[in-house]
Amino acid sequence: MQPTIGRIVRYTLTEADADAINRRRADFEAFQRTILPPRVSGTGGATGHQAHVGNRAQAGQTYPAMVVRVFDPSATTANLQVSLDGNDTYWATSRTEGDGEGHWVWPPRV
Question: Among positive and negative, which fits the CA dihedral 53, 54, 59, 65?
Answer without folding.
Answer: negative
